[in-house]
Amino acid sequence: MPQIAQLSETYASQIFWMLVFFGLIFFVIGKGMVPKVMETVAVRDKQIADDLAAAEAARKAADDQEEAWRVASNNQRGEAQALIAKAKAEAAKATEGRLAGVNAAIDQRLAEAEQRIAGARAGALEEIETVASEAAGDIVARLAGVTVDAAAARVAVKEALNG
């Protein structure tokens, strides 16, 4: 077979060109392109790490701001509750003062009304005594035919009403 016979004659030249070609590929790709790709990957990894660090720092700062906001909010809420309690106390005090004044006015009116009622009661009792003593005098005069003194009739009517 002539092809096999040629193999020994071309074998050395094929190995030479294979080594030249693979050497060229090794130096062009291995020494030229791979370092650039690796540098790009390293830069990308560093950028990702920096972004993650910045995100962590931003999260920590946001947490700190949120905690500061909560503390301030709680302080403001406490101050607002203190103001509300103070306003309620002042309103209760003012209302209590007004109620005391109104109660005093009502007590005064009640005392005046009780005095008027007592006066009206005394006047009514006096009228009743007067009418009763006159009626008693007239009744005794008609029934017994005896004239009764108005003062004696009044004393008898008072005894009958009180006793």
Task: Write a structural description.
This protein has 163 residues and is an all-alpha fold. The protein has one domain. Helix content is 95%, strand content 0%. The protein is rod-shaped, with a radius of gyration of 62 Å. 2% of the residues are buried.
Features:
163 residues, single chain, mainly alpha, 0% strand, 95% helix
Secondary-structure map with pairings?
Elements: H1 2-143, H2 150-162
Helix pairs in contact: 1-2
Share of helix, binned: over 70%
What is the distance, rounded to the nearest whole angstrom, between the alpha carbons of the first and last residues?
169 Å
Mean of pLDDT: 89
Strand content: under 5%
N-to-C series of helices and strands: HH
What is the CA-based Rg, rounded?
Answer: 62 Å
Shape, please? rod-shaped
* Strand count: 0
Low-confidence stretches: none
What is the multimeric organization of the chains shown?
single chain
Structural class: mainly alpha
The domain count comes to 1
State the helix count: 2
Main β-sheet description: none
Write a concise synopsis of the structure shown.
The protein is mostly helical and 163 residues long. The protein contains 2 helices and no strands.
